[in-house]
Amino acid sequence: MPTPAYRRLDVALAVTALLADLWFISLVVVFGSDGIFTEGWMGYPGMMDPAGQTFQADVVNALRTTAWWTFGTAVLCRCWITAGVQLCVLPPAAWWIGSFDTYYH
Q1: What global pTM score does this model have?
Q2: Which DSSP letter does residue 50 get?
Q3: Contact predicate 86/74, CB 8 Å
Q4: Is CB count within 10 Å lower at the N or C end of the chain?
Q5: Distance from C-alpha of 2 to C-alpha of 10, rounded to nearest angstrom
Q6: CA-to-CA distance for 31 and 26, rounded, in angstroms?
Q7: If you compute the radius of gyration of the chain from its CA atoms, what whole number of angstroms results?
Q8: Contact 45, 35 (CB under 8 A)
């Protein structure tokens, strides 16, 4: 059973990881809405950026890689709440961003 101090550390890490994940996902959506993603709720996405053809796939891979590395690190440190947050936020975000319509497919 973890000590109360260790549990507080785990909760603090989980909150920090959650905020960092949301910031990362927000950046992906903001940068992707400038000429890559064509989702209807984003409004006019701007000019099509030919350099962004692999943006969606790269972001999905980055989210999945980040999820597994941060989950693995949290498990090794026995920060179970943080590990759970990473598995509950990043893989669904990768799926969500992978489901966006783009100009390229």
Answers
A1: 0.86
A2: G
A3: yes
A4: N
A5: 10
A6: 9
A7: 16
A8: yes
